[in-house]
Amino acid sequence: GLTSASNWKTTGTYMLEVELSDRADDEASYFTSNQGQKIVVTSPEEATKEEVEFVQSKWNEVEDAVYDGRLDEVRDKIDVESFAKVYLIQELSKNLDAGATSYDMTYKCSEGKFYAEPVWDYDWTLGNYKFDKPLKGSPSLGNGTPSNTSGYLARYKAMNTGNGSTYSSDKYNFQAALCQNESFWAEVQNIWTLESGSETPAF
């Protein structure tokens, strides 16, 4: 649970939100990760500089490992199952904002681990937009044409680099970067198999 600022780093729970760059600039507390992603600290709402730097260092360690293909080195610091389940929710709902905005996480200091939670902000889902729009946010060859999306949306979505329509041409967002990791994708497939009875996700 939440606690006083004096004990936050040992017993508190931080709430973080991946956010669009222009929106993050309007928030009271946020940081820019090593990979260039804006992360808003939503709890504590007005975090101190020390608190922001603390959770930033914890996030950078996990994020860098994921982008470097070293997920297995930080499995004790990220609840892979929760991230896999949130990915499936985002993929199944075809969430326009998948991994780009309102992508929420908690960091539980008592466990030293990140969780993908809570599930939030699904207004742009289930066809409530033109389907060609989100595909423009997928890594491409630099010409705006998605490469190898194979019907997926969240699995290949690029990192947002500005407002809602500006995306990187060569870098996935964190969720999509996770999906490129074989052990993470195996977790996704395992959860899908247990819940649906089919062997592989089919979107």
Describe what you observe in this structure.
The chain has 203 residues and is of the alpha+beta class. The chain has helices spanning 8-11, 21-24, 49-67, 80-92, 132-135, 174-179, 182-196, and strands at residues 13-18, 30-32, 38-43, 103-108, 113-115, 158-160, 167-172. The chain has a 5-stranded antiparallel sheet. The chain has a two-stranded antiparallel ribbon with strand order 6-7. The longest helix is centred in the first third of the chain and has 19 residues, at 49-67. The model is unreliable at 1-5, 133-137 and 139-148 (pLDDT under 50).
Condensed summary:
The protein is of the alpha+beta class and 203 residues long. 32% of the residues lie in helices and 16% in strands.
Descriptors for this entry?
5-stranded antiparallel beta sheet, globular, 203 residues, two-stranded antiparallel ribbon, 7 helices, alpha+beta
Per DSSP E runs of 2 or more residues, the count of β-strands stands at: 7
Helical percentage: 25-40%
Coarse morphology:
globular
Class by alpha and beta content: alpha+beta
Largest sheet: 5 strands, antiparallel
Mean pLDDT: 82
Beta-strand percent range: 15-25%
Number of helices: 7
Q: What is the helix/strand order? A: HEHEEHHEEHEEHH
The N- and C-terminal alpha carbons lie at a distance of 37 Å
If you compute it from the alpha carbons, what radius of gyration comes out, rounded to the nearest whole angstrom? 17 Å
- Could you give the order of strands across the largest sheet? 2-3-1-4-5
* Poorly predicted tracts of residues: 1-5, 133-137, 139-148
